Amino acid sequence: SQQGEEDPQALSIQEGENATMNCSYKTSINNLQWYRQNSGRGLVHLILIRSNEREKHSGRLRVTLDTSKKSSSLLITASRAADTASYFCATDPRNYGGSQGNLIFGKGTKLSVKP
Amino acid sequence: EPEVTQTPSHQVTQMGQEVILRCVPISNHLYFYWYRQILGQKVEFLVSFYNNEISEKSEIFDDQFSVERPDGSNFTLKIRSTKLEDSAMYFCASSVQGGMKQETQYFGPGTRLLVL
Q1: Which residue of A57, A104, B54, B63 shows the fewest CB atoms closer than 10 Å?
Q2: Residue A32 contacts by C-beta under 8 Å, 6 or more apart in sequence?
Q3: Subunit contact B99:A33, Cβ cutoff 8 A
């Protein structure tokens, strides 16, 4: 798999349910960021988790990071129809020359929340 | 809340023409980036820019591409001679810190470029 691969590719749930999206990556990272994109629109930053952090919360969002497994998960609790969007993880790979900050994005998970 | 802005929102051009995409990063940010997203595909890194020079560029960022910070607020991406495969959404992003102290990158709304 490539750096920053999300699964599932698509997820359809009912309003009020929780949505969990996963991301796997291959190289060592400085941090991992989650973004949201409404259809055809810009990328909205959701949360950044650093390589020395294991869990982070922001409102209804909970992100975990397991650097030993090179994976992260994004949990959206009590989902709403307005959460319908594509969700991407983006990694900032660490390299010995010093990261210049180019983010590597996955293909995303398309979340559909039905009212 | 400060945000990254991009103009135009849409651009249609003929193959072989030059296009300039414009971005105004968040004012206290020092690191600037361009990414692109071909329809239905991943967001791909093009170039990062700091202290008036390119920090890093991807394989996509060939001689047809150039970036410039012509003044204290604008950050531009120029494609000299557009090809059909340059059709994509182009995103500008900026961050306060970069390099090993990477912070959140804030993205603009994008410019949708269509090359005919």
Answers
A1: B63
A2: A23, A25, A48, A49, A51, A63, A65, A72, A89, A90, A91, A92
A3: no
